[in-house]
From TrEMBL:
Residues 30-84, 160-214 form the BBSome complex member BBS5 PH domain. This is BBSome complex member BBS5 PH domain-containing protein. Belongs to the BBS5 family. It is found in: Cell projection, Cilium membrane; Cytoplasm, Cytoskeleton, Microtubule organizing center, Centrosome, Centriolar satellite. Keywords: Cell membrane, Cell projection, Cilium, Cytoplasm, Cytoskeleton, Membrane.
């Protein structure tokens, strides 16, 4: 699957370095909150002026002189942010932004120094956006038995609109099933039991892999498959009479497709003071970052490919490589064997 396709997104859930240009372009629904320069990546690239781009999904930094030197920090990976006194290659001893992040059992420390005197915008932007991200997880995370229903009413999210409300829908997770109601909004599906509203599930469209109708021991059932990285659940629902299922399926698939084309991540910022300059959510604006080297480097590529294979349930089928004259495992999109074998110089 192309990394620019929806669900599950990777931009907010991975920490990656020296990415190809296509990986730096904004995902559909991703928007820039702030663009700040000059910023130094003091720990990783001391002495190099760079630009920081803060979006609703991640923090991007790239060198101004060599844009192929860059990093992408998903907001879901950020553990904490603080300030730290550091020795900058360009400013000497100064106060800097310290970001602690975790990804795939590894922890990463990032130190960003604003080279403009007395400017702390990089700190306030990152902290503010990360706080907004953490407070909007219901837009992106599947939740079981959470406090989302009160007096048979869904607690609405700020950008949410109810599109479908179906009563008399059975959840088939038990031997006898549980009778309840199914709601569909512009960001998620919600089911809750009639006799116990605490027995519920909230499924953002971004976590849903497919919505179909299948035969079950209860007869035809509406089946919702959740992405493996979001839990891998397979959930069944039944509605009587069964003629209700096909129209309901068509409506849910339409809502899911509409979200896929224009996702709503729920991260919104209301700046107390004047909004930062140069904010723009046009993907083309990112082209000024320039053309990176076109690969992660062999070690990081192989590590990420190995992790991906562990997550994939289906075995990977080999393909023929004219470059080697052998059958090999398919490469990720945006990579070539020539890139992986080249020795890069700086």
């Amino acid at each position: 699957m192309s990394k620019n396709k929806i669900g599950p997104i990777w931009q907010d859930r991975e920490v990656l370095f020296d990415l190809p240009f296509t990986y730096l372009k904004l995902h559909s629904g991703e928007k820039i909150f702030d663009r700040i320069e000059p910023i130094e990546d003091t720990k990783g690239n001391s002495g190099a002026k760079g630009r920081m781009v803060v979006t609703n999904l991640r923090i991007i930094w790239h060198s101004m002189s060599s844009p192929r030197i860059n990093l992408s920090i998903g907001l879901n990976c950020v553990i904490s942010t603080s300030t730290k006194v550091v020795n900058s290659g360009l400013r000497g001893t100064t106060q800097a932004l310290y970001v602690l992040a975790a990804f795939k059992n590894n922890k990463y420390e990032f130190v960003f120094t604003n080279l403009s005197p007395n400017c702390v915008r990089h700190y306030t932007s990152v902290v503010g956006v990360h706080k907004a991200y953490a407070g909007s997880r219901l837009y992106r995370d599947l939740k079981l038995r959470s406090a989302i229903i009160q007096n048979k009413q869904l607690k609405m999210l700020p950008l949410e609109k109810i599109c479908i409300h179906e009563h008399g829908v059975w959840n088939l997770s038990s031997e006898s099933g549980n009778l309840g109601s199914l709601l569909a909004s512009n960001v998620r599906l919600v089911w809750y039991a009639d006799i116990n509203e605490a027995f519920n599930i909230s499924m953002p469209y971004i976590t849903i892999e497919s919505i179909t109708i299948r035969n079950s021991k209860f007869g035809d059932a509406l089946v919702i498959v959740i992405h493996a990285s979001c839990g891998g659940y397979v959930l069944g629902f039944r509605a009587d009479p069964r003629e209700r299922l096909q129209p309901l399926l068509a409506e849910l698939q339409t809502l899911h497709q509409a979200y896929t084309e224009k996702p709503i991540f729920g991260v919104e910022m209301n700046w107390d003071t004047e909004a930062p300059n140069s904010t723009c959510d046009e993907i083309e604006e990112m082209e000024e970052i320039g053309e990176p080297r076109g690969e992660m480097g062999p070690h990081l590529y192989l590590a990420s490919q190995l992790a991906q294979n562990k997550e994939d349930s289906a075995p990977v089928q080999p393909v023929y490589s004219p470059y080697l004259g052998l059958a090999i495992e398919p490469l990720k999109e945006g990579f070539t064997l020539k890139n992986l074998f080249e020795v890069q110089t700086t």
